[in-house]
Amino acid sequence: MVSIYIYHLYILSSYQICHTASTYSTYCGKKTFISITKSKKTLARPSVKNIVLVEGVRTPFLMSGTTYADLMPHDLARAALQGLLHKTGIPKDAVDYIIYGTVIQEVKTSNVAREAALGAGFSDKIPAHTVTMACISSNQAMTSAVGMIAAGQCDAVVAGGVEFMSDVPIRHSRKMRKTMLSLNKAKTLGQRLGLIGSIRLAHLAPELPAVAEFSTAETMGHSADRLAAAFGVSRVEQDEFALRSHTLAKKAQDAGLLKDVISFKVPGRDIVSKDNGIRPSSMEQMAKLKPAFIKPHGTVTAANSSFLTDGASAVLIMSEEKALAMGYKPKAYLRDFVYVSQDPKDQLLLGPTYSTPKVLERAGLTMDDIDVFEFHEAFAGQIMANLKAMDSDWFAQTYMGRKSKVGTPPTEKFNLWGGSLSLGHPFGATGCRLVTTVAHRLQKEGGQYGLVAACAAGGQGHAMVIEAYPQ
User: Fold this and answer.
1) Residue 415 zone, left/alpha/beta (φ > 0; ψ -120 to 50; rest)
2) For residue 39, what pLDDT band results from cuts at 50, 70 and 90?
3) pTM value?
4) What is 51-166+305-468's CATH topology?
């Protein structure tokens, strides 16, 4: 904030100073201050439709197995959609399309977007579909919405995501499944008895789900441990970053900054109004935990990893023209975005490193232009490895085909309200939380540009530039 003190300046009326995308209202009189906020060029393009984030909400993110334990995924998604309806007041038939992201699907509600929309009271005339792209599933839901609006197919789209880790599908073994299907087709008693007699004890062993890569059979935590080792990220560095995340999240929660969180009356239980995984500890306590994946010498522990989380999110995305016509004051412009992918064996979690320079180039910006950074925190080791990769000319030249490094986000701009390590990480829902947080931080901090970046299973990643809406 630059303050210019004007003495003996007489102006009889208020007026506005307009500079590109930002508008500043000032009133000048004798001994009056004019306050002018730092401004940069807007990313608006004459031939490109402006697409805006009108509002974003989420249920409280809860550790799996706690208050949400007896629900189903569509219950959480429905609560988020109802919260969005309540917060925006948008008519239930004014939305053109609904898109939801999820990772581990409940087989009874495979298109959870449709089931949640119907349960929330949206018009049954509104189409809905579900997408999956691991931890960037709701990012994909949002950018799909952006694409539909940019193409002129829609004016208003609700995007969101949900994940429910308290109750995940557990399958019979493949041999048992084949036997059961054959039993269903058997026509005689003899055929049925023969099939039943073929069942062995080993057939009854269930197939348990795992957060692992199909292509490599390696768990994500194991990959994070190897990545941290490859970039020389120490256990102390990881614990310090995790402690920072929890401390900042607690501070933001206590200050009422997490305005996207809605209260949710859990059927048969209490009203939930805040995230329950925020747990500031101490370096001494964190140091006592044993490695969770690579034992005994690994550095990834339960304390410096994101935890299994239940939660849902939802955002209202519209063309600027439609939003203003309906009387809304948007929160931010959704600008350029990219998706990237790389080797899922050795570079599984480096999505932010690859996506950040690409999205900045698309937008014509540099790291210095970004006022707010929000990166997904899968593991502290993953975040620290990305930051070291982003600060390495050697890595940029060797693996990315770039002449030089992109650089690292300044600490004072990075994940200032906590992140997935502390707030929680419902796989399919985190992307909307990141984008909404950027919009709220830009409003709070007076910045103009924000950048979201995230890694995902399969060695994929996403980044998006968000521009503050003029206040």
Assistant:
1) left
2) low
3) 0.89
4) Peroxisomal Thiolase; Chain A, domain 1 (3.40.47)
